[in-house]
Amino acid sequence: MRFLMTIIVFLIFFSFAGIGVYVVGPDLSTERFATEATEKMRSNGQLEKVVEYVENDPKMRQYIEEAEIAEPKQQTLPFQTTGDAAGTLIKKVGISDLSKMKSGVEDGTMTAEEVIKKLEENLSEEELLALKVVVYKELYKQQ
Q1: What is the sign of the dihedral through the CA atoms of 131, 34, 92 and 95?
Q2: Is the pLDDT at 137 greater than 60, yes or no?
Q3: N or C of the chain: less Cβ packing under 10 Å?
Q4: Is 10 exposed, middle or buried (0-12, 13-18, 19+ CB in 10 A)?
């Protein structure tokens, strides 16, 4: 009887632990991923290059202006943090496609317009607007 109770207690414990990891784990990993990526870009000086590129490209500037307008309405957007944005991108676009986009942009085989088009295909209007707001905050508010 004691052996059976021990097994039941362990099963209950591991069930709750598994559920906790399943629910909390992805949020922690996406938040950490987004923070590390931002810090890496900031330390390498790439963040300033991105800001300069965005300010010089009319299409990108249009996206930033949309984000500036939408920022006060942030409570109604699907996500507000970089971790939530990263999680949504991973779920909707997929980590392999995001990796391909990243390497394509770095290699010069993919343009920013192609990346935006791919994101527009996979995200809803509200998610895209929320992503614009998060990117705007990352680029301009944390410099």
Answers
A1: positive
A2: yes
A3: N
A4: exposed
